[in-house]
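Researcher: I've been going back and forth with a colleague about how Bifunctional aldehyde dehydrogenase/enoyl-CoA hydratase might be arranged in three dimensions. Neither of us has a model we trust, so I'd like an independent prediction. The organism is Deinococcus sedimenti, in case that matters for your notes. Sequence below.
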Amino acid sequence: MDAVYGRPVAVISSEGVDFGGALAYGRRAGGALRRMTFHERARALRALGAFLMERKEAYYAMSTLTGATRRDSWVDIEGGIGTLFSYASAARRELPDERFWPDGRVERLGREGTFVGRHLLVPREGVAVQINAFNFPVWGMLEKFAPAFIGGMPSLVKPAPQTAYLTERVVRDIVASGLIPEGSLQLVTGEPGSLLDHVEEQDVVAFTGSAATAAKLRVHPAIVGRSVPFNAEADSLNASVLGLSVKPEDPEFALFVREVAREMTGKAGQKCTAIRRALVPSHLVEAVTEGLRRELAKVTLGDPARDDVRMGALVSVEQRERVRETLAKLQQEARVVISGEATLLGGDREKGAFLDPTVLLCETPLTARGPHELEAFGPVATLLPYDSLEDAVHLTKLGRGSLAGSIVSRDRAEATELVLGMASSHGRLLVLNRDNAKENTGHGSPLPQLNHGGPGRAGGGSELGGLSAVRHHMNRVAVQADPTTLTSITREFVPGAEVTEDVVHPFRKSFDEIQVGDSLLTHRRTVTEADIVNFAGLTGDHFYAHVDEIGAKEGIFGKRVAHGYFLISAAAGQFVSPAPGPVLANYGLENLRFVEPVSIGDTIRTRLTCKRKIRKDLRPGETRPTGVVEWRSEITNQDGALVATYDILTLVDRARDEFDPPAEEIGVQA
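Model: Here is an independent structure prediction for Bifunctional aldehyde dehydrogenase/enoyl-CoA hydratase. You can compare it with whatever you and your colleague have in mind.
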């Protein structure tokens, strides 16, 4: 039934679904996804995001049936699609164009350097079973699907029945797009039936919903018996703390009031990250109550399809009744200070699932239990007075683990004490004040780059958080080998591996011609006093260790030494090929370490070796295909001892390939 007028929208059922067959099919079909590289999957995900964005208005129209206003739906629809773009971008920027992910550094396992090890991440050969809540039928699916897809795992999505019709509408378009491999995404609506009975060791299960349901699923015999990774993101009694230092006339006071009101009314309070407990200094309780009364009086209730409505309905009449029952239990230890029945602007008060915002006050929060244990999953919040920062921290922890918390204060010492006190029991903390008021995304807004999850009651899991969510869908294996074999496996040069030296200077080769392991050993150069003096005069770096004979003798080296940056510059002079060619620019320098000092009269030479290659996509307006080549640079002295090592990134011409847009689209002749 729709949430606004109580009219039938869809009939759903999972009767007759072969859950075991669906999972088996996903595991077989997942082979096509695993054969794609990270970059290929990222391009597909980006294209899918653009495809869905073109069809967003159809999703907005259907979303009003769930009780969501357009502002609520923006978070769900465009926020969900934006997650696809975010993961596509992160994968292209940070992951290799391979089917595996070299993880961490190479570990030297033997004294002579002939035995080394490194971790690799590879896709699990199963299905990511994703069970989602009713409140975000689009974002809830896409925020799980995106990292699973990048990680090479197909998804089987099980949305909550109340809003599954919107999820199904989006999935129908995803299938029609043809942009992702067959079997990458399956959808099951209705009851989950025997779904979890069929999960196997290579599968993963991700759940969003109530803490009680998460606790039951976590001990499912198949999950426990087959050691299936299980991630839970559950509801929690999130708190926002108004700092003791804040005065009623401060901007932070108004920010706190607006944030609590916004979190109460956004999605009609049906967010797992919403503010349920508002912690207020005891002397400000009355002022905050009045502020909330004024702010909530501005909230218009009714049909979310109308432009003049700020808050729609709860997802169903059944959900409204559950909130009312919890509200009645909360009133055993708290009293209602703000309530009322607003005039509806459209919608049906009886058949629709409308509930007016309600604020309670618990005057004994340190001894009460209800506000810290009972969640009214709707437009309900409880004010909790406190007298010290220690009490505030203790009150937040009584929720036994939260997804999100916020601190409203401009006093940095106060904010620091609260953050460090609350950090162990929260997955994310927002410090809000006048300085970030314009840009902050709010207490209850998970972001793709940051962790979404929390300890204890919040489920003990973690979603999003950038590429850490991709790791969850991959197996980490330690590979031990000799350097040359490990280089061959990882396609990244490992120190000590065999190199290839050619009569053609590596800087004369294009991106397509250069190979990992291509190397150049330069001519020698003896460092003179004139080099050091001239470099000091050129740069203005007259540090005593370089130019002061007496001071240098008393320093840690016992004599004058060359500038470290002179060594890097001298090395560049040794390995560059000065004529115009495929190498276009120095793109960066990373992992610089100075190992041994170089003195006057020492002789240096440099070995430059191709470490890895990174293809770059053409950006809008770019017409020249390029790639980045990462070079390992090692400077040694006359004794063969390493004096400096670092990685150089160069921008290099490459040939056009199948992933580039057609030449005519960018004005370039083929």
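Researcher: What would you highlight for our discussion?
Model: I'd start with this: The chain has a mean pLDDT of 93. After that, consider the following. Residues 70-94 form the longest helix (25 residues).
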